[in-house]
Structures are given as structure tokens and as C-alpha cells.
Amino acid sequence: MQYKTETRGSLSYNNNKVMNNMNVFPSETLAKIESMAAENAVVIFSVSTCCMCHAIKRLFRGMGVSPAVHELDLLPYGVEIHRALLRLLGCSSGGATSPGALPVVFIGGKMVGAMERVMASHINGSLVPLLKMLALFGSDEC
């Protein structure tokens, strides 16, 4: 049996589910993530007690950027968002109590990735031009 699919971004929507990296999760969860990721130029999905999440928040704030931060451990739907983010990142598991693969950063509504990807972008010099492109700070900063 074949289903008609619609592609939006890099994800394929099939009926009421989203297929990505051979994982399936409700499209309502993805829609929530997309909505949250679009609310600010820089959005960080975090856990309030995670030291890596704290480091990423400090990195952006140190550059003069004010990210929207969603502390998943403090949100009633945080577990579902966390699981969906893990799947989007290609992670196969992660418990509700484990921060695994967090923080996840979105810039300009697009997922940059987890800590390693963001730090690699910062170190190789590609993060600042991306932020400048979004006019988050002037050319004399950073």
C-alpha cells in the first residue's frame, strides 16, 4: 500500500506522522518544534540542569545574542519535544530523564544541531557570519 507524502524542508509527512531517519513521530510534535524554532532568530532547546546547555546559552549571550530558551524539563510537553529532537538529530535513544544530545540550537528557523555542531561552527568561524547574516549584531562585534 502506498501513501501520498508531502515534503516540507528535509522531512517527509505521511498522513499524520513524520518520517525521518526511519523514525516516526506525530506531526503535532514536529509542528510544535517548528513553531518554537521560528519564534526567535536563535532558539535553544535545553535542560535547566545541563552544564552543556548552560555553556551554549553563555556562548550566545557572550556574543550579545539573546536566544529564546526552552527548558524542556520545565515544560509539560518537554518529554515529547526532547524525543522528537533526538530523532531529528538521528539519535536512537534517550530517556526522559537524560539530557542526551541537548542542547539543540536552531538559527533562523533551521536546526544547526547539538553542542558539537554549534561549537565546531563557532571554532571554524562559520557561526558568526551566520548570525551577522540574520542581523543579530553589527560587523564590529565578535
Automatic annotation (TrEMBL):
Return any one Pfam family short name. Answer: Glutaredoxin
Domain Glutaredoxin: residue ranges: 42-112
Cross-referenced PANTHER family: GLUTAREDOXIN (PTHR10168)
User: Origin organism of this chain?
Assistant: Arabidopsis thaliana x Arabidopsis arenosa
List keywords of the entry alphabetically: Redox-active center
Report the protein name in the record: Glutaredoxin-like plant II
Q: Which InterPro entries does the entry mention?
A: GlrX-like_pln_2 (IPR011905), Glutaredoxin (IPR002109)
